[in-house]
């Protein structure tokens, strides 16, 4: 299915506000409520919308550190990578993980209460994961742009 202008407008609107009512969405994209609801259901059924969720407040949750950890393996065995990937799924403070090219094998987006908490996490958790031989941390000083949703290319 190809996306038309209205489909794209619907997707952009729900990315900006996942709790938008159907009436407000319909008004925003220039449709009446019934056709808007049908289009939204079709976009969900066709897989354009993975899920809906709330964005939580880091300050309210006392999350003061955002870090990016570059994880390197000494031995590149599929079994170790699979085990590493399986284990990180169960660690909530790792909010994203990417298998990357370059000098590192994985890039982890990690949150912590403070630097002491992050340091203990690296020492006690990250370095103990299967295959990990080194961890290089890059600390975020300030978030300039947060996840504003995907662009519709």
UniProtKB/TrEMBL annotation:
Signal peptide: none annotated. The keyword DNA-binding applies. Coiled coil: none annotated. InterPro entries: ArsR-like_HTH, AsnC-type_HTH_dom, Dimeric_a/b-barrel, Tscrpt_reg_AsnC-like, Tscrpt_reg_AsnC/Lrp_C, WH-like_DNA-bd_sf, WH_DNA-bd_sf. It comes from the Bacteria. The keyword Transcription regulation applies. One of its GO terms (biological process) is regulation of DNA-templated transcription. Pfam families: AsnC_trans_reg, HTH_24. This is Lrp/AsnC family transcriptional regulator.
């Amino acid at each position: 299915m190809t996306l038309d202008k209205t489909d794209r407008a619907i997707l952009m609107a729900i990315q900006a506000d996942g709790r938008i009512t159907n009436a407000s969405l319909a008004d925003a994209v220039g449709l009446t409520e019934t056709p808007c609801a049908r289009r939204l259901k079709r976009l969900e059924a066709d897989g354009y919308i993975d899920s809906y969720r709330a964005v939580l407040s880091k300050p309210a949750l006392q999350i003061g550190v955002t870090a990016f950890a570059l994880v390197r393996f000494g031995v590149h065995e599929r079994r170790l990578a699979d085990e590493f990937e399986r284990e990180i799924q169960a660690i909530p403070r790792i909010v994203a993980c990417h298998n990357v090219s370059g000098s590192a094998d994985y890039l982890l987006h990690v949150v912590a209460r403070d630097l002491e908490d992050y340091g203990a996490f690296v020492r006690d958790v990250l370095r103990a994961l299967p295959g990990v031989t080194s961890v290089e941390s890059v600390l975020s000083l300030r978030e300039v742009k947060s996840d504003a949703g995907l662009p519709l290319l």
